[in-house]
Each structure stands twice: as C-alpha cells, then as structure tokens.
Amino acid sequence: MPAVKLVEQAEADPALKDVMEAAEGHFGFVPNFVKALANNPEMCRVITQFLIQALGPGRLDWGLKELLVLKTLRSIKSYYGYGAHERLALELGVPAEKVGDLSNSLWRTSPHFSEGERVLLEFVEQVGRDANDVSDELWERLRRHWDNGQLLEANAIVTTFVMIGRVGDALGVSDPVLFTKPLAPM
Length: 186
Description:
mainly alpha
C-alpha cells in the first residue's frame, strides 16, 4: 500500500488538470507515481512534464533510453517500475537478449551491445555508486561515442530515474504498466 494518498484526477488540485490530462494522453492513463506527486502540485507539474518529455524520442533513441532506465533501476536496487520499463523496452524493439543482459554484468562482454552503449552503461553504474566520482577518463570514452547533447540527455535520464526509483520505492508506489496506449511509430 502506498505511503501517501494516490490523488485521482477528479480530486486533484484544479491547477493540475492540464498535467493529469497530459499524463493520460502520453501514457494512456495517469500513472500512480503522478497520482502520488499530485499531493504537491508544483512538484507534480515539474516532474510529470519532464517525464513526458524524457520518456520518448529525443537526442537518444527511445529504446536506448529505456535500457538506461532499466540499468539505473538495477544499479540502485530499485523495484519501482522495472517491469513496466522492461515491457516498454521490448515494445520499442529492444531485443530481449539486451534487456536480459542488463540484469548482471553480461552487458560488459555481450555482442548485443556496441562499445558506445557499453560505456553508457558503465556510466550508469558509476552514477548509481557515486555520481561525484565519474572520472575524466570515463567522460573521454563517453565523448568518443556521444555528443554533448546526448550525454546531457543520458545523464538526465539516469539521475532522474535514481530519484524516481528511490521515491517510488520509499512511498511504496507501483506502476506495473507504463503505457496502456499503443506507441507511436518511431
């Protein structure tokens, strides 16, 4: 049971009407995480708008972003939303072998990952351990494969899902399904 009330659309602060509608439009329903955030309207607005922007096409392929989300949640031992993001990655066409290799260290040598993807996953693990200790050497290897905008987007996804995983787990919120509407063709 969640530690805070899950605020349904009908009872949400009227100032969140557009946010709740946007979440429903993007995800196909209002996720429980958003309903928990609705207890603090300002926080709900900012985080939900960012999630909608982040969980979709951008500078990085959406499937790759889902791999980053999954590795982030694994790296911090978070259970919030893992199954939903795993399902979404598969729906986006990420091979099941890639998703499976993330659960342990197989990704380090797996032929399913490029060198650029491997260095991003290494970054995810480092941020999960200690974001203050990302070495210059790791940043150099990252820059061989990714431009500044892509690195910013990857970092934003990773650090956001560190927060989301921790908040979701601490509050006992679960969202077994992330999207209930068909995904737009990519």
